């Protein structure tokens, strides 16, 4: 996503020189469907490409199904996996990340979900009646669980935090979202696996902290990602849980930029940001790096946004709902169910909003935040006030 | 098909909202969203986002753009051009006019310009 976004932005900004995209898997595709429609089988590989083949010809982007083996910024070149060398005045590292492995004895038995082949393997494992243990109840774990339920699998979802996602959507929505698992027949267990042991007939036994054990035909781990930063590190570029970049995607080497999941923002004061792992962050960081590569100032972006889907419910959030440091939460509830949560700063400005099933509330919230407005808390809390009326 | 369809009177579609004309009424394959902007203009695009299954009529209509309610791709209501990811494919436009106090949609006929309410 980051590489595609950067290529698209370079052309939009008028760059008319050569542009090569190294993409070992072929035409770049969108990852969010891998845990949603593509996993469920309602969208195929052709449907999830970011742009059709014509787009690359029209925009003068050459796609090579090659891996970069080494960066040679001092020689303005990149060495490819096939031994060829490609001249490059500017290089963008958008190598993404890989799933964090389940670091317990036998943990290599766990499936993970990152690319199309992973989704294909996972789909094959989610047979009706299969006993599936999902480790990690964050967004990926929850989406995989929801898909597994759709396939008729018998799912146990293991996460030490109950409910997860509180900083992302606030306590009330996090609780409601986590309860959806139980409502769909999923057993949720607040624990962590300590060992995966082989069992009869190719099945596994997942031993949990506290002494219990769950039999599984398939185990899926959704416990975070590790940035693929070796290429940068090998080229002497500064890396610290991600390739360190400024707001324009510039790394410690002036010819090399980074964007997407592999990158980590270093603020001007030297403080390191948390790696942003959502889809929109990849789009934006790709755009910022495109500007940086052209020597133009980075665009200004509003508050970060993400979406997720489970059991047919569409979840979105913008900004932060983490009330631990500042602010107070305002809830919008109807019939005892929370629809949306808003985090208001002490001065009345909106710091973030999350909603389950009310996407226009999030579009209103994004505009309120971008414009620095102080919304009326009573209107935010009132489910009869339409989203558009929140902007005044 | 080039014959116009009566979609209703201009005030039946509140400003900042849209009305969907279904294929059985329009004779074309896809549902069409007829948008009434806050500045009083009417535009029509295919209703389904070119990215995934979502109704643009249920999106956020502001100025001359609509933002998809699912993944926030925006489209230019005048031209159907996609303005931001994740969609990368433009929406087809359809001609809309206001004739004798009625909003008239021409399914399958590309828009040349916005129809304005009498002003």
UniProtKB/TrEMBL annotation, chain B:
CDD domains: Rieske_RO_ferredoxin. GO terms for molecular function: 2 iron, 2 sulfur cluster binding; metal ion binding; monooxygenase activity; oxidoreductase activity, acting on paired donors, with incorporation or reduction of molecular oxygen. Residues 1-26 are annotated as: Disordered. It comes from the Bacteria. Pfam families: Rieske (PF00355). SUPFAM superfamilies: ISP domain. The keyword Iron-sulfur applies. Keywords: 2Fe-2S, Iron, Iron-sulfur, Metal-binding. Residues 18-105 form the Rieske domain. This is 2Fe-2S ferredoxin. It comes from Sinomonas humi. The lineage of its organism: Bacteria, Bacillati, Actinomycetota, Actinomycetes, Micrococcales.
């Amino acid at each position: 996503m980051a590489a595609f976004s950067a290529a698209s932005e370079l052309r939009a900004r008028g760059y008319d020189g050569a542009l090569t995209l190294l993409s070992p898997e072929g035409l770049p595709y969108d990852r969010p469907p891998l845990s949603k429609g593509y996993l469920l089988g309602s969208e195929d590989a052709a449907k999830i490409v970011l742009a059709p083949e014509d787009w690359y010809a029209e925009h003068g982007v050459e796609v090579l199904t090659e891996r970069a083996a080494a960066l040679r910024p001092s020689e303005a070149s990149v060495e490819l996996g096939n031994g060829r060398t490609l001249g490059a005045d500017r290089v963008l590292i958008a190598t993404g990340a890989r799933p964090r492995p389940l670091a317990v004895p036998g943990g290599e038995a766990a499936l993970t979900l990152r690319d199309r082949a992973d989704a294909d393997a996972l789909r094959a494992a989610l047979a009706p009646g299969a006993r599936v243990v999902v480790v990690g109840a964050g967004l990926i774990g929850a989406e995989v669980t929801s898909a597994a339920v759709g396939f008729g699998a018998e799912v146990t979802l293991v996460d030490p935090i109950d409910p997860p996602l509180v900083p992302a959507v606030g306590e009330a929505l996090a609780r409601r979202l986590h309860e959806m698992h139980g409502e769909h027949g999923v057993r949720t267990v607040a624990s962590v696996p300590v060992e995966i042991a082989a069992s009869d007939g190719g099945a596994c036994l997942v031993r949990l902290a506290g002494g219990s054990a769950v039999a599984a035909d398939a185990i899926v781990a959704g416990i975070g990602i590790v940035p693929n930063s070796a290429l940068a590190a090998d080229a002497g570029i500064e890396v610290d849980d991600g390739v360190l970049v400024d707001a324009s995607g510039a790394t410690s080497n002036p010819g090399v930029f980074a964007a997407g999941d592999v990158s980590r923002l270093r603020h001007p004061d030297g403080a390191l940001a948390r790696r942003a792992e959502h889809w929109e962050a990849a789009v934006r960081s790709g755009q910022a790096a495109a500007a940086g590569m052209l020597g133009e100032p980075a665009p200004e972006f509003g508050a970060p946004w993400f979406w997720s889907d489970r059991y047919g419910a569409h979840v979105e959030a913008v900004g932060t709902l983490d009330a631990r440091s500042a602010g107070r939460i305002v809830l919008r509830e109807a019939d005892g169910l929370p629809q949306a949560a808003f985090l208001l700063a002490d001065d009345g400005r909106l710091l973030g909003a999350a909603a389950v099933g009310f996407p226009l509330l999030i579009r209103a919230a994004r505009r309120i935040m971008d414009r620095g407005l102080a919304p009326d808390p009573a209107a935010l809390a009132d489910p009869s006030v339409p989203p558009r009326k929140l902007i005044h | 098909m080039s014959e116009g369809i009566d979609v209703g009177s201009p005030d039946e579609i509140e400003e900042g909202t849209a009305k969907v004309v279904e294929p059985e009424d329009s004779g074309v394959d896809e549902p069409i969203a007829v948008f009434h902007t806050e500045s009083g203009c009417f535009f029509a695009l295919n209703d389904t986002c070119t990215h995934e299954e979502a109704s643009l009529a249920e999106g956020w209509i502001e100025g001359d753009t609509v933002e998809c309610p699912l993944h926030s791709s925006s489209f230019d209501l005048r031209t159907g051009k996609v303005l931001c990811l994740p969609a990368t494919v433009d929406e087809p436009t359809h001609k809309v006019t206001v004739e004798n106090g009625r909003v008239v949609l021409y399914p399958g006929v590309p828009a040349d310009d916005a129809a304005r309410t009498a002003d």
